[in-house]
Amino acid sequence: MTTLEQKSDQLPQQLKDKKVLVTSESLGPINGVTRATGYLLDYLLAQNVQTAAVAPRLPKPAPSAWQMPLIRLGGFPLVYNPDLMIVTPFRMSKIFQHTFRPDVVYLASPATLGLQAWWQLRNSGIPMVANFQTDLAFYARLMLPSLPGKAAGWVIDRLTGYFFRHSSIKAVLCPSTSSQNYLLRLGIAAEKLRLVGRGVDCLLFDPRKRNAELRQKLAPQGEVLLICVSRVSLEKGFEFLAEAYAEITRQARQKEPSLKFRLIITGGNANAKIEQTVRGYFEKRGLDVVFTGPLVGEPLAEMFASADIFVYPSLTETFGQVIQEAMASGLPVVARREGGPADLVLPDKTGYLADPPDLVAFAKYALKLIEDATLRTSLGQTARMLAETRSWDAINQQIATIMNDVVL
Fold this sequence. Notes:
CATH superfamily of the largest domain: Glycogen Phosphorylase B
Radius of gyration: 21 Å
Low-confidence stretches: 1-9
Distance between the termini: 33 Å
CATH class of the largest domain: Alpha Beta
Mean pLDDT: 92
Helix content: 40-55%
Largest sheet: 7 strands, parallel
CATH architecture of the largest domain: 3-Layer(aba) Sandwich
Structural class: alpha/beta
Number of domains: 2
Strand content: 15-25%
CATH topology of the largest domain: Rossmann fold
């Protein structure tokens, strides 16, 4: 009997008789947000909930694995990340013709698609649940020049507050205390907010998938392998990581010149110029780094499990799903104390958190783990045990219960 079958009686009975429409700004093996939405669709369909989804077209079309109506919409790829789209205008009435009129709408990380759906349905009487998974205002402030970034951030803050405060949005899910506090500052009523994290697939991500042949290829001299798994994009903190890795190398040469280690970066970007810019951060410093390109499924799980330490420089994560996947793979984590990672990493138990601007501390924590194999093993084992308590079934049942509660 599968886990989903074991928990089927825990799905709210009322929701089993309702129609659920899911909108997502991307849907496919793209990032942590899209994987979370995919797991929710898996769960609803396994419980025989009548479900449909709307999402942008994929850059490389592929057949859907879901046995449900799935509407793909056109748009314009983002320059900095062509896997994501600005969706062109569409009519929800036409969406309903190809799916159904839903009893509840779930808006996953609403942006150009979700906001259009909300605007058209806000007076329809259909209750909506929104999941705040991407801090667009933070992205704007980080990636744009100072004054335009501040202006764009201010505008996005105002729009976000107006959207989530609207009476048609019956509940707002937030993945971390940091995102919850941000929404409270925007004036979202506390009783509307629900703190909902994400699960992790501990069958896929497992320390037992450590691959000796892969390690021999990546660490032929027995190097300690640091790994960062992320979309290779400017907002993910790779320039900081390059500086931190240079500092790790400098500190290691001073303390123990014979210490061997290597950084692995797993991920990609459909915009080759952005990916080359990120590679340049490391190349100009003469650093020993291996870029594997993007991996998914078993190859990704083997890459995680074959490394020794997970390092993560991003400040833009509302959650940080790759941190949970690293923990499930038995890796200690070094991250920055900002957003979702601040909730996920338990200092001195599953890894270390450095204050966001403190490059030296980040390097010191990483070097501490490079030097001490026993410490790596201890923190990694605790990380794995913690990850095993975070099942997708429990998270998706929580979301299903929230949707059930808002159905009129």
